[in-house]
Amino acid sequence: MRKAIDNLKERPGHERRAVAVGIAIAVVAVLFLGWSILFFKKIQGGSTQIKPSDVSQQARDQ
């Protein structure tokens, strides 16, 4: 790992930036994938359902 970092330090700025952008895109993709899996599992489980009576009660409370 240390060798890869030292090799990267010797490269021109545009190549280092390209590597950084690639890593950032990979991190965002992994986070989005994890979020989407959890989100759809939560929807599939039905834990986000709202009863019509709850909505009407909230409207009266305001």
UniProtKB/TrEMBL annotation:
Keyword terms, alphabetized: Membrane, Transmembrane, Transmembrane helix
Keyword Transmembrane annotated: yes
Highest taxon above the source species: Bacteria
Transmembrane segments: 20-40
Protein name: Uncharacterized protein
Originating species: Candidatus Kaiserbacteria bacterium RIFCSPHIGHO2_12_FULL_53_13
